[in-house]
Amino acid sequence: MSIKQRTKSLQARSSELSSAFFQLKVLNGQEVVDEKFPSFSNRLQNLGYQTLKPSQIDIFQINIGKLCNQTCAHCHVDAGPDRKEENMSRENLELCLSILKNSNISTVDITGGAPEMNPNFRWFVEECTKLGKKVIDRCNLTIIVANPKYHDLPEFFAKHKVQVVSSLPYFSKTRTDKQRGDGVFEDSIKALKMLNAVGYGKEGTGLELNLVYNPSGAFLPGDQAGLQTEFKRQLKRKFDIDFNQLFCITNLPISRFLEYLLESNNYESYMEKLVEAFNPGTVDGLMCRNTISVGWDGYLYDCDFNQMLELKVTSKDSMHLRDFNENILNNRNIVLNQHCYGCTAGAGSSCGGEIS
Amino acid sequence: MNYYESEDLKKFGNITEFQEKMGNKFFEYYGEVFKEGALTAREKALIALAVAHTVQCPYCIDAYTSDCLSKGADEEQMMEAVHVSAAIRGGSSLVHSVQMMNQVKKVTM
């Protein structure tokens, strides 16, 4: 079944929200001026963090492009089939490899869009594994069944022991399709079965299949362990599907999720929930402390969210792949803004799920 | 002024202002009740949602709708929980009709 998109990218619709500047203006609006939502930086300063510093870069997260076969309602990348221009070039991928070769960074985390749609994807994965790096692919699942040229992705992933991390907002069609497009649930189940068939998510294979739960609405994710138990039980019972871990990721108020919040009149109450749920215990474990995020054009960011808000790293002498300097980057000040409340709410949120 | 203001839900914790000791004991107990136990936190949220409908508390309905969603319950499960509430409410009226029937039979020829 082909996917029926529920929307187009903000950029294709010429929405004001496609501008990072406009999004930051919303995030720093009247509620911040009135101190209804305290500034995130001040909140950290009150805890004794004058600046937030990295621990050490261990994860090299590359946003390889914004092209995607889906246009999910909550996408923070504003990805979609209409984002054909922003794809990482071979030249930039070669720069990534040269950095990785000379570094102790253990993990290469490839995201998008649908990363597999970048024509250099398979070559790049092969080269990373040759360097002995652990590779994560953030796969939307449906790409595997979208076109015959992608049908062998499960075998390709297995061959290179790629860790597959895939979004599945719910174990039922209604909630999944509302967030990700009509037909996505059915195709995701097909793809999960294909991954299971080559050993992904099965005990003893070493082939890791982790699912991502993003709430499909203006609410925060519940306890990760409880949700994982429920997802495992339901996916096994309904579809005989196995997976390893469930990562709960909070939706950050940017891009298309910000659009949803504003249009549904949930923005203020959602921000209020994030601010009220601020958990100081999550700060030391924030993903921006051990991750560097690389944009399709080679610029460097503290995380994928800062990347989408065009908030580049502060280290002036190491802002692009061609000037990459691990020592300088390890001493940078991480750029903070109001969206950071999304990563510190409740049990915290990172690309690997809960923090505490 | 309305009798129910959604903003008032946020002030629930303020009940300790007039009776601190009892209020604190209540919230401690409340927290303990909703922890994962023999029942999962999700099951407890669904029970709370059903009871919220039985006692017709708009604050509790709002709070436990959000809580059920956060804990991974879906619309179908949540509506089934409300039907359980409705069935017990309806059933409790109807089961009392036995008393009515008994009385009718007693006083009629």
How is the topology of this model organized?
The complex is a heterodimer of chains A (356) and B (109).
Chain A: H1 20-27, H2 30-33, H3 40-46, E1 59-63, H4 90-101, E2 107-111, H5 121-130, E3 134-138, H6 143-146, H7 153-159, E4 163-167, H8 173-180, H9 184-197, E5 209-213, H10 224-239, E6 246-248, H11 255-263, H12 267-276, E7 291-294, E8 300-301, H13 304-308, H14 326-330, H15 341-344
Parallel strand pairs in A: 1-2, 1-7, 2-3, 3-4, 4-5, 5-6
Antiparallel strand pairs in A: 7-8
Chain B: H1 20-33, H2 41-54, H3 58-70, H4 75-107
What keyword list fits this structure?
heterodimer, A: alpha/beta, TIM Barrel, B: mainly alpha, AhpD-like, 68% helix
Walkthrough of the structure:
The complex is a heterodimer of chains A (356) and B (109). By secondary structure, chain A is α/β, with parallel strands linked by helices. Chain A has a single domain (16-21, 53-264, 286-330), classed as Aldolase class I (TIM Barrel, Alpha-Beta Barrel), CATH 3.20.20.70. Chain A has 15 helices and eight strands. An eight-stranded mixed sheet of chain A has the order 6-5-4-3-2-1-7-8. In chain A, strand 1, helix 4 and strand 2 form a beta-alpha-beta unit. Chain A is globular and about 55 Å long. The mean pLDDT of chain A is 95. Chain B is extended, with a radius of gyration of 19 Å. The longest helix of chain B is centred in the C-terminal third of the chain and has 33 residues, at 75-107. Chain B has 109 residues and is an all-alpha fold. Helices cover 68% and strands 0% of the residues of chain B. Chain B has a single domain (15-107), classed as AhpD-like (Up-down Bundle), CATH 1.20.1290.10. In chain B, 13% of the residues are buried. The mean pLDDT of chain B is 94. Chain B has four helices and no strands. At the A-B interface, helix 10 of A face helix 3 of B.
